[in-house]
Amino acid sequence: MAVIDTTERAPAVTEKTASAPPGHYRAAVVHEFSSRLTIDEIPRPVLEPGQILVEVEATGLCHTDIHAAHGDWPVKPSPPFVPGHEGIGIVRELGAGVTEVALGDRVAMPWLGYACGTCDYCVSGWETLCLEQRNMGYSIDGGFGEYAVAYGRYVVRVPDGIDPYDAAPLTCAGVTTYKAIKVAGTRSSDLVAVFGVGGLGHMAIQYARIAGGRVVAVDLTDEKLELARELGASFTVNAAKEDPAAAIQRLGGADQAIALAVSPRSFEQAFGSLRRGGTLVFVALPADNEMKLPIFETVLNGITVVGSIVGTRTDLREVFELHAAGQTTVTREITIPPNEPELVVTLTMWS
Ligand SMILES: [Zn+2]
Ligand SMILES: [Zn+2]
């Protein structure tokens, strides 16, 4: 994002004192795809029933925000809009009928900003597939502002003791990989291949370990592979130096492979790394939408291919529980928009 510069300086997290929300607040707005975001004064909206006003403390920058700002995906957001689906903040105002959260609660505002709550998907624990869903930073203005409006029913409370700067990336990168490991069905003794050790991958390694799996991490740089080992990977493969599929087959093949790198080639390597009966989980969304999936090997080897999209509120609660219990580590850096130090603190995951 063009408006954001990196700085080493990490602001202290302090409890903001409650004051009446202002009539206007500033937010980073996309007016045109691919042009710079502008910092605009936005009139504070009148809350609809079920909505809440959140004073933003921190927000993550996810690759999806960049795709949103560039209008890269087939279903585009409608400018002007405010990106951000990893917003963390304090509830400052409640719309009519909100019972799920209270003033002063710290909440996370994830990608799934709203769902219908009554369709088959919603009632069966698959609210992330709801056709009526609306998404923070895409079809609902997101967390790149001093304040954001969210739905009380779809935010998730952040437990005490979790740093908001950790909570932000957990709200997408964390829950997305946590869900991917659930979907993969990882059990103790499974070998899990994690393709791509970035913002998502470094969390996937930890969730695979928590599920009992042994991890082989694949990336193109030794620095990331070193981090992967620090986070519990038993094996690493540098795909710039050797064929990861062959290397993982020498280990006996992966029970599950999690595709997190935005390259169809990497998806194909992940497929090639599986042992018989293995599962390939699609998570990353490469701009180039196609990969080669050989039918013969899929059938004969009994391979499962499954897509996994973010996670539910329950998944995010579990992610926060694990983090509060000290079972996960978030690697991140804090960035502050130049000339707007008070506006919004943004995190980028190590990538
Ligand atoms: Zn995201
Ligand atoms: Zn629904």
Count of DSSP H/I helices: 9
Helical content class? 10-25%
Heterogens: zinc ion
- Report the order of strands and helices: EEEEHEEEHEEEHEHEHEHEHEHEHEE
Instruction: Note the main sheet.
Output: 8 strands, mixed
What coarse outline follows from CA principal-axis ratios? elongated
Question: Which spans of ≥5 residues are poorly predicted at pLDDT below 50?
Answer: 1-15, 344-351
- What's the mean pLDDT score? 91
Structural class: alpha/beta
Strand content: 25-35%
Report the radius of gyration as a whole number of Å.
20 Å
Features:
single chain; 351 residues; alpha/beta; eight-stranded mixed sheet; six-stranded parallel sheet; 18 strands; disordered N terminus; binds zinc ion
Q: Overview of this structure, please?
A:
It contains nine helices and 18 strands. By secondary structure, it is of the alpha/beta class. The strands form four sheets. Strands 1, 4, 5, 6, 9, 10, 17 and 18 form an eight-stranded mixed sheet that branches. Strands 13-12-11-14-15-16 form a six-stranded parallel sheet, sandwiched between helices. A two-stranded antiparallel sheet has the order 2-3. A hairpin with an 8-residue loop joins strand 2 (24-29) and strand 3. Bound molecules: zinc ion (2 copies). One zinc ion binds next to loops.
